[in-house]
Amino acid sequence: MLFVAPEGTELLEPLPAGSIFQVALVRDRGEIAVCKRLLPRVRREPAARAAIVREATALDRARHRSLPPLRRVGSDEHGPFVIEGHVAGASVRALAEGWRARGAAVPGRLVAHLAHAAAEALAAVHELAGEGGHAGGDPHLAGPLLLSHGDLGPDHVILAPLGEARFVDFGAARFAGMDAALETADRGTLPFAAPEVARGEVAPRQAADVYALAATLVFLAGAGEPLLAARDDAAMLLEIGERGLPPELCDRATALSSTARDALRHALAFHPGARLARARDLCAALS
Predict the structure, then answer these.
(1) How confident is the model at residue 19 (pLDDT cuts 50, 70, 90)?
(2) What one-character-per-residue DSSP string does 171-233 give?
(3) What 8-state DSSP symbol labels residue 162?
(4) Any alpha helices (H) in 19-172, and if so which ranges?
(5) Who has greater pLDDT, 172 or 1?
(6) Most exposed: 69, 119, 206, 270, by fewest CB within 10 Å?
(7) Tell me: the pLDDT tens digits for 59-71?
(8) CA distances, 1 to each of 12, 77, 78, 254 (Å)
(9) Is the pLDDT confidence value at 266 over 80?
(10) Superfamily (CATH) of domain 9-85
């Protein structure tokens, strides 16, 4: 499918599309950036339009080194678009599958480093305050931003060149003060979505991010081995919704201490009330 770069940008390379967005690398004002557009088939769907607004708004309100910087938003005859900074590095999926293709385990030091770096980054993002807490900010946006990614998984957690963890793709994000019209039935990506989110009972919030990050780290520790025997979405939805992820999967993370592995099990508890639900607590356990 042809990607049309917005006026004033140069198309460099189309990137794999998702269920909602077309994505491409572009050159914008002399710098490499990422441009997102809605796929033509969903351009008029309210849920798709809500996703692009959520992504732009979340990145505009949450300025943090672990997130792509928002460059600009616009609309043309091909629909709305978002241009954001390019996050260089390798996704957790690329890392896991790369080592698996070599027939080798992911190095323990890499697992341990990324586990702590990602948990620390997520905790910092979850603790961001609204812009009203800064001089000149809108006082109506003061207080905790309560930002949640909403769809963490191996494709959305990035190990950047200097070893820091970063997050991309905020189309399912939620944040304080979000317009009710932007609330849609997002269920995350299986099998990384928390059971209650996968069942459609609640919207993805910060506690669901912690669950999804724990599942992503287990996926990395297992060099990309499937987390469930089920392969198709319907079977995975049934298994996640009824039982969640098997706690013994955490035994894959042999590079982590027993305390850290217990923290992952706690974060992946089936019942939300029994779950380690704060990113800062997970970070402390993984230290």
Answers:
(1) confident
(2) TT-B-TT--GGG------STTTS-HHHHTTSS---HHHHHHHHHHHHHHHHTTT--SSS--SH
(3) T
(4) 46-61, 92-101, 108-126
(5) 172
(6) 69
(7) 999 999 999 999 9
(8) 15, 16, 13, 43
(9) yes
(10) Phosphorylase Kinase; domain 1 (3.30.200.20)
